[in-house]
Each structure stands twice: as structure tokens, then as C-alpha cells.
Amino acid sequence: MGNHEIERYLNHLAVNRQVSAATQNQALCAIIFLYRYIIIRDISNLRYSFTKREKAMPTVLTHEEARSIISNLTGKYCLIAGLLYGCGLRINEALKLRIKDINLSNNTLFIFRGKGRKDRYTLLPHSLKPAIESHILKVKQTHERDISDGFGLTSLPPALIRKYGCSAKDLSWQYLFISSTRCVHPYDGYVCRHHIHESTFRKKLRQAVIKCNITKRVTAHTFRHSFATQLLQNGTDIRTVQELLGHTDLKTTEIYTHVIGSRFSFTKSPMD
Predict the structure, then answer these.
(1) Suppose 176 and one of 97, 136, 232, 243 were both cysteines; which one would form an S-S bond, judging by CB atoms 3.0 to 4.6 Å apart?
(2) b/e string for 249-263 if b means 16 or more Cβ within 10 A?
(3) Same domain, yes or no, for 96 and 67?
């Protein structure tokens, strides 16, 4: 089989099966992987019908809804949700925060290698500082127990662990949301402590949403959408919001102006 058969299959997905653009793209990537690494043959110049990608508007929470959900979470999960909503973080950015990335003196967070491998700074809410300080003390206690047991290394990429060595035992390198158990590093084989898994927060979040009787589909990313819309509603200029969110293109940030309806602000409904 070659280009003709692959094109027929991709057209079949788009026309007959009417799958989403993401499903069609996933099928294409799987086929290209098969040919490139199993059959050892490159496929190029494919001609097929693209599934039209639907334009979806993000789900956002009101301030009251966001606060209600956060108040129904406890411990580190409450703090994670507070950072998602208060700082506009993605869930993986929040979980990968290290203690050295938190600057309590000037209320900033440093996001290392966010989406697109871009570094950025974002604001840190004053109201979260006591909870962060208290949580850091708990991390410090766990870290001291690890060191007394002969461990204490944090999980680092292979290049960094070779560069910093035993410095990776410093408290500053520890994750803010450390796992409850130690594990073996998948590449270098040393015993370390990683951050908690995203699925553990997802379960707690779902339970909190059910308690609040909120019918919207709420995910960790919903807090990031809500952060952006709240800033725009409170008068923050869109370029500042773009910088805080880490968007390369302003058009990505502009979708939140559609969500809050600012483009219709001078248009009156016939009913009014």
C-alpha cells in the first residue's frame, strides 16, 4: 500500500465516518510512524480531504463558582486550584513548580519551560502566601526525613542531574507538590521524589465540583480560562494578559474577549 490507499483511508474518515480533525490527524500520525519506523519508507505528498476543525469557546467560571470549588478542596489540592485560578497556570506548570521558582518577597512565580518550552514570570496572589509558606514547611520536613534515610535527591532531567549532582538534594530544588512516596528515576536509576500525578488532582477536583452542584464541565484548565476572563473584566489590558498566560500570538488571547462579550459592548438587543 502507498499514497493512494492512505489518501482513501483518510478521506473515508473525513467523509464517511465524519470524525473530528484531531482523530483524523491522530490516524495520519500513526500511519506515518508505521511507515517511517516499521516499514522504513517515507510517505510524502499526500492529498486528502481535511476534517474541518470546529471552533470551540472555552468554558469559564464566575468568581463565585471558582471560589466555591476551591473552598471544597483541602490541603495541597486547595493550594493547587488556588494557583491555577490565581496565577493562570496550566496544570503541568503548577505541578512542576519547584521551591526555588517561588519569590514571596516580590509576589512572582517563575514558570520554567512552559508550553512551547518558553520561560515566563506570572503574578503570585498575596492571599496564597500563608498557605504556600505553610506547605513549604511540610515539604522541608519530608525532605529532611529523606536525607536522614540516605536519600533526598529530587527528580531532574538526565542532563541537569549530571550538571548539579548532589546540589539536587538542596531544598530549593524540591518540587512544591511532592509525591507521597519515593520512586526510581526512569532514566538514571537513582531514588528520588517526584511531584504528584495530575490524575490525583483531577479526582479531587471532580468531587469538589459535584459538591458545589455546578453543571459546567470543569477541568484544571477551566481555572486558567477563568483567570484570563476575570482579568479582562477587571480592566487589565490584553497585552498584559497575553504575557501572564505565556501566549506567543495575541489572537490566542483574544478568544477571551469573545467569551466576556466585550466586542458586543455597544450593541443593544432589540428586546432592550
Answers:
(1) 97
(2) eeeebbbbbebeeee
(3) yes
pLDDT category of residue 224 using cuts at 50, 70 and 90:
very high
> What CATH number is attached to the domain comprising 241?
1.10.443.10
* Marked catalytic residue, from 256, 258, 263, 268: 256
197 labelled catalytic:
no
Write out pLDDT tens, residues 153-210.
888 887 777 777 777 889 999 999 999 999 998 888 889 999 999 999 999 999 999 9
Q: Does residue 224 have an active-site annotation?
A: yes
Considering 115, 120, 169, 185, which one is annotated as catalytic?
115
Q: Is 115 noted as a catalytic residue in this protein?
A: yes
**Same-domain check for residues 140 and 176:** yes
Whether the Cβ atoms of residue 171 and residue 140 lie closer than 8 Å to each other: yes
- pTM here is 0.79
Last residue of a domain, one of 14, 33, 54: 54
46-82 tens-digit pLDDT: 887 776 666 677 889 999 999 999 999 999 999 999 9
Catalytic residue among 90, 135, 143, 194: 90
Same domain, 133 and 6: no
CA–CA gap between residue 228 and residue 230 (Å, rounded): 6
Range of the domain at 87: 57-272
Assess whether 55 carries a catalytic annotation: no
Residue with cell 486528502: 48
Q: For residue 221, indicate whether it is catalytic.
A: yes
Please give the span between the terminal C-alpha atoms of the chain, in angstroms, as a whole number: 63
Given 195, 204, 224, 225, the catalytic residue: 224
